[in-house]
Amino acid sequence: MQIDYDVRANVMIEALPYLQKYNNKVVVVKYGGNAMTNDRLKHAVMEDIVMLSTVGIKVVLVHGGGPEINDMLKRVGKESKFVNGLRYTDGETVDIVQMVLAGKVNKDLVSMLESHGGTAIGLCGLDGNLIEAEQLDPDLGLVGEITEVNPQIIRNALDNGYIPVVSTIGRGKDGTVYNINADTAAARIAAEMGAPSLILLTDIKGLLEDKDDENTIIRTVGVSEVPFLKKQGIITGGMIPKIDCCVEAVRRGVKQANIIDGRIPHSILIELLTDIGAGTMIIA
Question: Residue 34's pLDDT is what?
Answer without folding.
Answer: 65
